[in-house]
Amino acid sequence: MNFTQLLQVIALTALVTLGLALLVVRLRAVLRGWLHRRLSPRYLKPLGVRHRAARQEPRND
């Protein structure tokens, strides 16, 4: 394999990788849209650390 063929293989690999990455991004967006249409809003809340609201003591003035 000479240098020109090696460059062609590298370029082809880069194009295929880019194409697959764009396909995955598109499929993810389609899946997310489908889930938003199918699921009720309570299942679409973001996950993470939940904090309780601080209780405020009544003021006795």
UniProtKB/TrEMBL annotation:
Q: Which residue ranges traverse the bilayer?
A: 6-27
Tell me which UniProt keywords the record has, alphabetically. Membrane, Transmembrane, Transmembrane helix
Highest taxon, organism lineage = Bacteria
Name under which the protein is recorded: Cellulose biosynthesis protein BcsF
